[in-house]
Amino acid sequence: MSQLSFRSHHSALARLWHWADLAVVTGLLITVLLRRTVLSARGNATLIQSQLQDLGANVNVDQSKKVAALLRDNLWDWHVYLGIALAVLLGLRILAELTSPAEERLLAKLKAGVAAWRAGGDKEAKHFTVMKASYIVFYACLAFMAASGLTLEYGEGLGASEGLLDTVAEVHETMLYFFLAFITLHLIGVVRSELTGAPGLVSDMVNGGPKS
Ligand code: HEM
Ligand code: HEM
Description:
Blueprint: H1 12-36, H2 41-54, H3 61-99, H4 106-118, H5 123-154, H6 162-174, H7 176-195, H8 201-207
Helix pairs in contact: 1-3, 2-3, 3-5, 4-5, 5-6
The structure holds protoporphyrin IX containing FE (HEM) (2 copies).
One protoporphyrin IX containing FE (HEM) is lined by residues 6, 18, 21-22, 25-26, 106, 131, 135, 138, 183, 186-187, 190, 201-202, 205.
């Protein structure tokens, strides 16, 4: 198997990591979706106020907003639990990179791709290099999400200023779009490879694939 082949061996830890990452990232995206739809504090505040009024209880806007925010916060606990799981997964991925055989390491694959590209590599070498580089960017963004998410959760207790927390929250929130774009392009890429260049890519991620 060539060093630049998309068909490569994935250790059991790497495969387990990949599917656990899929589950955790999907869970995080579901919490964001629910927060912005059925558990939206603004939308539910109006609903709570009008329903209670129908039942004869008089609550003002602020009281109903408080109840709606409590319901949303229950959901948000799950965002934080999954976020902590994501930070742990990132730690394991770094450990796997450091302990796996040289030829299975992502950085080694990227280096091989760059060397082939520099040596006047063909389209395949360029494609391979861009794919591996995109995974490095993904891991960097994952590290940022873990660090910023943990700062949002625990920063106040550790004395972070309100201004800093607001900026971190804004960037953390905006990074959502990077994850949506990465996942979309990743899935298109995987399906395209299965249909054209490298069929078997997905089963490699399930059964480990060919050993070099
Ligand atoms: C792929 C990873 C992640 C994505 C896509 C993501 C997405 C988001 C989004 C979109 C928001 C803003 C919610 C809104 O106002 O609509 C948010 C807030 C937040 N996230 Fe994440 N997040 C991720 C990882 C994490 C991690 C690792 C943690 C760490 C514990 C975390 C903790 C938080 C906290 C504490 C907030 C603030 C909630 C609030 O303002 O009450 N997130 N996240
Ligand atoms: C939330 C969704 C997903 C995320 C965040 C994600 C993330 C990743 C990452 C970071 C890698 C690079 C692994 C490495 O070499 O370090 C990867 C590789 C891969 N993923 Fe995913 N993945 C997702 C969903 C999926 C799904 C649904 C499939 C299959 C149907 C899939 C199939 C693959 C395959 C076959 C590879 C190996 C590609 C290669 O070696 O170039 N992924 N994924």
